[in-house]
Amino acid sequence: MTNVDIVISGGGVIGTALALACERLQYRTLLLDEPLVRHTTGRFGFDLRTVALSPQSLAWLDDLLSCEQLPRQRVERMHIWEHLGTSTIDFCSEEVGSDSLAWILEHSTVATAVRNKCEKLLGNIETETITAVDETPKSITLTNGKVVFCKLLVIAEGANSRTRELVGARWDSQSLGQRAIVTVIETEQPHNNTAWQRFGNGVLAFLPLTKPNTHAIVWSVPNPLFSALQSIDDDQFKERLNRESDQVCGKVLEVDQRVSFPLNHGLANTFRPRPWIFILGDSAHTIHPLAGQGMNLGIEDVRSLESILRTSNIDQAFSPIQLQALAQRRRAKAIIMQQLMSLFDNTWRWKDPLSHWLRNFGVRTFSRLSAIKKQVIREAMGFGPITKVN
Ligand SMILES: Cc1cc2nc3c(=O)[nH]c(=O)nc-3n(C[C@H](O)[C@H](O)[C@H](O)COP(=O)(O)OP(=O)(O)OC[C@H]3O[C@@H](n4cnc5c(N)ncnc54)[C@H](O)[C@@H]3O)c2cc1C
């Protein structure tokens, strides 16, 4: 029998970051995770999976880790265009008086850093998983039969969470009929700290990495196109990328191996299925990666919960009323983000001439309205009223 304040189930970036935040607040915390997943480092020496973090999210992570800076690449500019369009959108960090719009990090770098720090501070992470959740007294049972009593259980097991199901939260998942292909490429010309995104056959993003001619790519494509791309070799894939990217950084010279992810919008019907249980990160919501917001949203969940835990004494901290209000706010935010991503994704697919004209008109107008544009940039950077924590 073990007694702790908080059990966190799921040791991805989100669950582990929360464990560190709880430890910093001196709560007795137990982190549970499945055995560590191996990361895929490609032949250019980069993890094939990268993540764009807002300056706000990264500043919080840096503070949490209080260690040497993790390797990261600054995004100073963003250029967005479409294959049929005459208008483009350009964002620049200078427009909002900042040195960066976002930062690109390798997923494994972030995951390993939070995990190492957690193991150092909390001791080993328990690799048993939950088989039962009991109410009186509040406790969980692990696969090895051990019972752990706690005041708060947080589920951060990613999209396919088993404990979420065990506690009776419903998962509403809508397939987007797309897959995201991710890989690393080298181009003739340097990226100049710019992220490029083209809406055409799917959404193709070139994200700058720490070597000047090297980019991470995330290409979200409809399933039929994915099947066609699956069957082509690297040289054909390079040619395809050259066509799809309009060679914004010159020719694509090399491509690394490709991995892919199915895309869904998933949402738990409640983020607080019982008064003492909270769901966050991808266990609570998944969104289209076109704006690179999924992990940022999870970090906001953690920061919101952390701010409740910080300002309360141990009993108030787990007050069901506060948790319920937080769960509602975070769910509302996840819904807004899902709707925004669907809006972007669907709008760029309109093909008929009138819709096409309307879209170009909208893009041109948006680009000229500098006040609104600045607000959108601030929002994406994590400083706007919608992103405001709490
Ligand atoms: C192609 C793609 C590109 C993306 N790009 C970006 C981006 O640029 N910016 C951004 O902000 N977001 C991005 N995202 C989203 C981001 O990757 C996720 O939101 C984030 O990784 C979710 O982290 P998590 O810790 O919640 O879940 P996960 O990373 O899924 O971690 C869950 C953890 O729980 C463990 N687990 C599972 N079941 C159990 C169990 N029963 N018991 C115990 N442990 C369990 C797993 O082993 C894992 O360690 C992208 C997503 C995709 C697919």
Overview of the molecule:
The protein is an alpha+beta fold. The protein has a domain at 2-40 and 59-72 and 108-173 and 264-381: FAD/NAD(P)-binding domain. It has helices at residues 13-24, 55-65, 107-122, 162-166, 223-230, 234-245, 294-311, 314-317, 320-347, 353-368, 370-381, and strands at residues 2-3, 6-9, 29-32, 50-53, 73-75, 77-82, 89-92, 102-106, 130-134, 139-142, 147-149, 152-155, 171-187, 194-200, 202-208, 214-222, 252-255, 259-268, 277-279, 285-286. Strands 6, 7, 13, 14, 15, 16, 17, 18 and 20 form a 9-stranded mixed sheet that branches. It has a 4-stranded mixed sheet with strand order 1-11-10-9, with no helix packed on it. Strands 3-2-12-19 form a 4-stranded parallel sheet, with helices on one face. β2 (6-9), α1 (13-24) and β3 (29-32) form a beta-alpha-beta unit. α1 (13-24) packs parallel to α7. The chain is globular and about 65 Å long. The mean pLDDT is 90. The structure holds flavin-adenine dinucleotide. The site of flavin-adenine dinucleotide has 32 residues, from α1, β4, α4, β13 and α7.
Summarize the structure.
The chain has eleven helices and 20 strands. With 390 residues, the protein is α+β, with helices and mostly antiparallel strands. A hairpin with a 6-residue loop joins strand 6 and strand 7 (89-92).
Mean pLDDT: 90
Residue stretches low in confidence (pLDDT < 50, at least 5 long) are none
Oligomer: single chain
Bound ligand species: flavin-adenine dinucleotide
Largest sheet entry:
9 strands, mixed
Helix content: 25-40%
Q: Could you give me the name of the CATH homologous superfamily of the domain at 2-40 and 59-72 and 108-173 and 264-381?
A: FAD/NAD(P)-binding domain
**Total E-strand runs:** 20
Q: What is the helix tally?
A: 11
**In the CATH scheme, what's the topology name of the domain at 2-40 and 59-72 and 108-173 and 264-381?**
FAD/NAD(P)-binding domain
Class derived from helix and strand content: alpha+beta
